[in-house]
Write a structure and sequence with these properties.
mainly alpha; elongated
Amino acid sequence: MDFDLSRSDDKNYVLEKVKEQGSLLDLASTRLKDDKEVVLEAINQDATSLEFVSNRLKDDKDIVMMAVSKEGWTGCYASERLKADKETMLTAIKNDGQILYYVDNKLRDDKEVVLEAVKNKGLILKYASKRLRSDREVCIEAIKQDKRAWSFITDEMKNDEEIMKIMNPVEE
């Protein structure tokens, strides 16, 4: 896709371009990367455009929610404040459990958040709080999703009867 760099600060031109290919936001001027209308068009076309958004707008919940509801992993570009926002990160995690790696530590200790993450990607249990790596329900969901998550559960959970059954099913 052609992009005339001499027009990177021309709002109408950039709007037209990001409607066709959102990632062209990367070539827009700093001013337009901070323009909500331009940014929304870019993210509507390609959620990964969140990478190129101004820091101010990476802290705009509407913009980040739009991106993470399309592509959960784009939550890694959210502001630190939004990485600690349960609603925003739950939306991201429901689309991509891997995003637990990027969330604020308090959310790594939130059972609802971690449970959603491990249902989506069992191995992400590695980034849950120690308390939740000892939680029976969380451990079972993680191991059901990916048996390799067993290596991240606490020793006491490794001896749990139900977990042992999942890990070593009885042949019939």
